[in-house]
Write a structure and sequence with these properties.
- Helices cover 3% and strands 39% of the residues.
- The protein has 352 residues and is mainly beta.
- It has a nine-stranded antiparallel beta sheet with strand order 11-12-13-14-27-23-22-17-20.
- Strand 13 and strand 14 form a beta hairpin.
Length: 352
Amino acid sequence: MTTAVTQEVFGATFTGEEVSRFTLTNGNVELSVISWGATITSVKVGGVDVVLGFDSMAGYTSSPPCGKNPYMGAVVGRVANRIAEGKFKLDGKEYQLAKNNGPNSLHGGLVGLDKVLWSATVDQEGGTVTFSHFSKDGDEGYPGDVLYNVQYSLDSEGAVKINFTAMVSAPTPINLANHVYFNLAGHQTGAAGLNDHVMRMSANCFTPVSDKLIPTGSVASVAGTVFDLRTPTRLGDVLDKCPGGANNGFDHNFALAATEGDLNFACRVEHPVSGRWLECFTNQPGVQFYTGNFIPADDSLTGKEGAKYRKHGGFCLETQKFPDSINQPNFPSCVVRPGDRYLHTVVYKFGC
């Protein structure tokens, strides 16, 4: 079965530039993405929307009354996750980045890839949408020009595939991720829906973090810890045992057990009540499992159809190199050099 792709106007940027929405449909799954931030706005499985998001550009640009957008569905980078103290040294030179997470740089800085308008190309025959963006040398403090391409596709077996590629003019760290929030019970069901999810993660190790959520540099066994998700684990049974105080939950990088293939199994998440499930595959060495710990606990974040999104209202599976790897020599390198090509694939396969 071929994938149908449609295009419509979603809204406009602050400067009046048109933002387009593209909808890919194949069988039981429908994927919608917009050109602002190359963002996933919706994934419908059997007609049920399992992705948190917004109805308009007001939400994606953090405009009142929607509340602050916590990177819903967006491509984040130049470097996803946190860089300690917003600085790094590369080839003997130190670079200072924009700090937007206390003392650290998070998800690319003040104006990361989630806050720009990408150009889009549709391949109707191939059933794909490809977003492109050019980032100049010095952007948010990073060295080198970068040309990014992010391609979305959907196959007849319910698999949403994202291919990230990048080419550079100078050595620079690149570690992209998609920050889509899932809730297989339905985007509006909140923590009650999330609690009933069952996670099985194919990871024997994780990267412990400081109280600032910066990796310590070690890679530790999950055995005997709350991070041991190697057997099916109901999230509602373990979330209250996770660290983080008022922001407790999972916000940790798991070192995947299999990394040798072109695409390796990362995890399976099930929602037994509805029968919906999600499997994640990637060619990256890690996945950040995040359970929406920093989504406000109050009613300040209003999403699609007026839904109130609160803490633990959804989860992210951000496939990636390990966080802060530019400052951790024992982690897989995230440096891309001229002549190299950054290649990152993730597949989110849905069923019910």
